[in-house]
Amino acid sequence: MATTDTKNAKKTEEKKTKSGIPAASAKPASASNAAKKPAAKKAKANNPATKNTAAEKPTAAAKPVTTGVDAKKPAAKKATAKKATAKKATAKKPAAKTPVAKKAAANKTVVKKAVKKKTSAKKRPTANKAASMKLKGVADIRRYFHKNEVPIYFISATNFNLLGADEWIKSFKFVSYIECFDGLHPNVFSPKEEIPHDDFTSIEDINNYLLMHPEVQDYLKTRSKGKKAGKAMFLMFNEETEKLAKKQGLEIMFPSAKMRTFLDNKVNTNRLAMKAGVPCVPNVLSEVKNYEHLQKLTTKLGNDLVIQTPFGDSGHTTFFISNEAEYNKYADEIEQEKEVKIMKRINCKGSAIEACVTKHGTVVAPLMTELVGFKELTPYKGGWCGNEIYPGAFTPELREKARKYTRLFGDQLRKEGYKGYFELDYLIDQDNGEIYLGELNPRVTGASSITNHAVFALADAPLFIFHILEWMDVDYELDVTALNDRWSTEENVDSWSQLIVKHTADTIEYVDQAPRSGIWKMFDNGHIQFDRMDTHRRAVESESEAFFMRITKQGDYLYEGADMGILVSRGRMMTDSFQLNARAKKWIAAIQGQYASTIVEDKRVLAQELSTNLMK
């Protein structure tokens, strides 16, 4: 998410995406970002964990991974069967007198017709049954998924983003690169052996690796129904993912990668908002040639500006410009783009809302606060690092505006051909109270876990259920207006917070000890203790407990920006003035204290030595 009230974001080698996984970076350790798209190289030995909720394991070789054997073509099989039947019929043809032969031929024709009728009779009831099946409302939809027989997968670096989906959908499994639960999660499959692969540079690389892994391919085959392996969701995917999924017989439950790339473009998002009637921060969309050209473009926006390039997340491609010196720092990145978004800088707070485009309208979840740039959680000044959901978040007027704008934007997405899950970041101007669209994430995100575990989702169904329903080839009825009205009431919202805990020091450290995933308990003195293994974050009973989902494990490497894990608890973690509260600080310090590591390289010391030498 990019907010316009933060300072210049530090330029790093890593990108982050609000999703829940890591990508590769130039550092020896792999990343595991639970939110926005990171990248990190791993050390040759040991298995470094990656971000956005994913970690990279050590590369065995640079040799490309093979994709396996192609599936047989059904068309060829069908033709062969037809040919065999014809031969069989010819062999039975009598060779007696002509009249007899004619009679036999006549009989043969009758047999053929009878067979055709019989086949038709068998098929007809199935077709009629499918045509007549219609789910009428939320209760039918819930029952339908509890009886589901179609194999459904979430394939990603970790299962963080759709945590708990297996409890709502029968035959739902997670295929994860990082094993966060030490093999104790009943519905997570993670390949045991690492096969040679190139360094991961994105979440897409991780997903493509998984689809090419022999263990994953074998697992899909054991659960397939005939030639169809089932349906799959991905946090991030590209055209290569689409090809690999098709080869394995998987249907991707998202619009095409091409469409998602188009929508990911911040400039395109801005234009869609204009078409939908959703306000954006006053802005100009244009190419920028130099600082003088920028000044001419922004005479109505003032001197304090925010420039965003089309792609990039978590503050890494958001530049705050108020003079020529600041512009020159980022001139190369700004001027290489054909078009950028130039905004007036406002004093704002961030918020997020998730929704789902369905055939019956846009289902909208409640508005959440966003945690951004806290130094205790992230080294990135504009970096997303968590969310809160609670009754009374923001004023009723702001909540209503956010719901209205989200419905309008969702309806516009449907006109563009999009369907399914999406998330919008809103910027709330602290000076005039206005709410503006920040950016669009056309996917499940790092905030999805908190959305889908709140009480409104349990009372009806999680938002991801309505997304998956759009790909289940079943007709259904849904009163979207009534659903949105229920979800907008404070009675249907309980209080939850999640913190994305990153390694904030500029060091590279080998992890000797890491905390387990599960429920942890805090004592009155601020110390914590592992209480019990659980994969259900709702098992947290009070604010003195928290669910921790470990990303970086023993044997991995920590480096600046690496995800250590996700901490989820009941109640709030921020004050009303959007600062970390005392409880949040205690939990952060306590969970970080459960890690023991050996420093491999301290870049802080190197930087200090360099600074000292320059001053001599």
Automatic annotation (TrEMBL):
It comes from Cryomorpha ignava. Residues 270-469 form the ATP-grasp domain. This is Biotin carboxylase. InterPro entries: ATP-grasp (IPR011761). Residues 22-37, 45-67, 96-109 have a biased composition (Low complexity). Residues 7-17 have a biased composition (Basic and acidic residues). It comes from the Bacteria. Residues 74-95, 110-126 have a biased composition (Basic residues).
